User: Fold this.
Amino acid sequence: MSPSREILWLLRVIVALGVQSVVFICFLAQLRSSYSPQEKKPAQVHILILSSWRSGSSFTGQLFSQHPDVFYLMEPAWHVWTAMYRNRAKALQMAARDLIRSVFLCDMSVFDAYMSTQRNKSDLFQWEASRALCSPPACDHFQRNHIISKTACKTLCGKYPFSKVEEACKTYSHTVIKEVRFFDLTVLYPLLIDPSLNLKIIHLVRDPRAVFHSREKTLTALMYDSNIVVGPQNNQGERGPYNVMQEICKSHIRIYTEGSQALLSFLKGRYMLVRYEDIVSDPLAKAAQIYKFAELHFTPKLQVWVYNITHGKGLGTQAFDIGSRDAVNVSQAWRKNLPFQKIAKLQNVCKDAMDLLGYRLVMSEEEQKDMALNLLFTQSLLPSDTEN
Assistant:
């Protein structure tokens, strides 16, 4: 073969191989696009309500619990703290995180580490606060679209096996957990980027002065948790309650700051700050906003329930129960009953959190008692709930 013909033949071979390579690459690309897993959100929506004790979180939790599309649990990490009570709060956060991840995935075997294997549904902390555990398939005495009270549920639905918890969880489109045992958001970042979860965070805060006033009525009930938060030595004497509040206020600063990180793409649209006072001042509007964030329909039946539960009379009689009461008066009770000396001390330890979250300081007893003086900065002055 002459050199010119050999060169021509080589060129033809190179061109042919090039065409085949292009075709093969295109085939692989098409094959990959056909078979590679698509980045879709899980079908189920997961909502974590982050708050602290006596901050209106039980009421906010019931906004979700009473929704017929929601499987709700109230503070399942209580079991972690009870089983590992010798540790401090920060050391328990990862164990609590792993537990709530399993709950979000409806894997209730995670409780084997913290509860007896021979257990009923009623062994779960605050199980009766969950409408989902008071209706089929967890209980046959009520329908899923019923508004169910804790008392009625506890009376009729307690003697069902624990396996009903997991069975019920798998039948709902939304799983909602309310927790008071996380003190920063970074420990939850792995859940926010977990492809098996579709997690959103609702950060519920309340005026620290109202929280302090409410905690004074329940010091004995909260003693166990307070010891874990600050240590028994820092939870003694007159200074003890202020030490606990200082840590709670610091945690709200951390969570809010970490949740508002605009540079973290996985937080976009997944963090919402909610002030309890904004809920009680306009319950229907705020509930609608919360439901929209959670991708839930605000049914007419729920609208009636929300109105009735926030427009009752009186301040309520049971500290940890949800009943019809005058929600606005409840939120303002500290202004009438808490001595100004205590308010001044509390403001001293929580000032940074109050400034950040939009709570105005009172500088005298006259300002405290002046109910015409609005102590809330308008919500428009705070960063948007859903933009981050």
Observations:
- The first strand starts at residue 45 and ends at 50.
- The chain is about 50% helix and 5% strand.
- The longest helix spans residues 3-35.
- The mean pLDDT is 86.
